[in-house]
Amino acid sequence: MNPKAEVAHPSLAAAASGALARRETLTITDNRTGKTYEVPIREGTLRAMDLRQIRTGADDFGLMSYDPAFANTASCRSAVTFIDGDKGILWYRGYAIEELAEKSSYLETAYLIVKGELPTRDELDRWKDNITNHTILHENIKKYIDGFHYDAHPMGMLVSTVAALSTFYPDAKAIFDSASRELQTYRLIGKMITLAAFAYRHSRGLPYIYPDNELSYTGNFLNMLFKMTEPQYRPHPVLERALDVLFILHADHEQNCSANAMRAVGSSHVDPYSAIAAATAALYGPLHGGANEAVLRMLREVGTKDRVPEFIKRVKGGERKLMGFGHRVYKNYDPRARIIKKIADQVFSFTGRNPLLDVALELERIALEDEYFVSRKLYPNVDFYSGLIYQAMNFPVDMFPVLFAIPRTSGWMAQWQESLLDPEQKIARPRQIYCGSGLREFVPLEERSGRREGA
Ligand code: CMC
Questions:
Q1: Which residue, by CA, sits nearest to atom 37 of ligand 1?
Q2: In a shared domain, residues 135 and 45
Q3: What are 158-190's pLDDT values in tens digits?
Q4: Which atom of ligand 1 is nearest to the CA of 376?
Q5: In ligand 1, which atom is closest to the CA atom of 324?
Q6: Cβ contacts of 234 within 8 Å, gap of 6 or more
Q7: Is residue 80 situated within a structural domain?
Q8: What was the pLDDT predicted at 354?
Q9: pTM
Q10: Do 268 and 333 belong together in one domain?
């Protein structure tokens, strides 16, 4: 049986002929040949493969589209997350992020994202039990983490330890077995907090703390990070809830760089641990999940409010980027940034105000009035304020991207599963426009001369 037949999809051929019949089409005239083609428009898109028929002759490969960075290309159909970038709207499975942040918990939202529906009480209890029961790591992973230098970046440790998990769970290769996928989902969501906490404890030279299954997911994570000599760690409810909401906000964000990495790497049918390692690596970069760390370093560099105008000048001069600003999809305020600003107030009322908040507020105030940022529709994104909260909660700056990777695991698993079961998907393999040399004759080494290194 075709494993992809698990999901019902309308016949694509039928959809295309329906579009043609309704004249939802685009007529293209190729001025090279004078020929005219009518191609269907479905769901607001053209199929790039419909261009292939446009050829100048029998030897012509056919027309392709060129879209570096996928700026105007949908790579999949997805039912997980909806973003309206102009209006600043974000939904998971049809539920508004504002409502989820107020009324849900991270694990409930993770269930929604992975399974498509909100759970019943029993379903949620089972889901939580299963994830909690998979937070323990194989003891050998500790030896692996021990091998890292004391100042190893925790994201580097996370990327490699998640990849290492694939060697502990060879059963995960059964990617078309739904029970196996479910088990790996529990393991991955469960173990991410333990891997992250162990990486932190290693960098501090502190003993590893085992999970305490009496605690919530985020409470347990805080326990594994910060427990010292007390017999039982009790997280402060304000910080526990704040972290849980931050996890909800970071759980998925449709086809971003790391989700795309997850899908592309997963399309080779590798196991999910290896694919999650690739997605985590993509998240590490400062243009993606590493931006929260970069924002904090930038705020420290600016230092005080009075130095903000000078910094903005350097950004406008192209010398620097205003980290935590701008987004490929949002051309309006990122709704997650709005929620984070509110959480910051609650956290600071407990921890005391982070003095860098004034610098951040001033940067935002000036940027939102400045023609450079206004004309480019650059607004604060999720990473602009999150670091200030993490810092107030005592997380070191290099842990910030790790705090993004933990909740994003549920989104990656949902995107991966959707991609595997989509009958239209195959191994991700883009085309290129070759712009290198024509065929050349090999020159023996002793006959090569007069060419500069790298020329
Ligand atoms: N500071 C200054 N100028 C900027 C910024 C910024 N943060 N972001 C974009 N621009 C300018 C850019 O130079 C370009 O100007 P011009 O038209 O004169 O060449 C214009 O705005 C359009 O930018 P772009 O680079 O074409 O936009 P993109 O969609 O390729 O990049 C981005 C999106 C998020 C990578 C970019 O805005 C950026 O580097 N932001 C800073 C890093 C950051 O905060 N990343 C986190 C993103 S949200 C969470 C996540 O995905 O992890």
A1: 326
A2: no
A3: 999 999 999 999 999 999 999 999 999 999 999
A4: 21
A5: 44
A6: none
A7: no
A8: 86
A9: 0.93
A10: yes
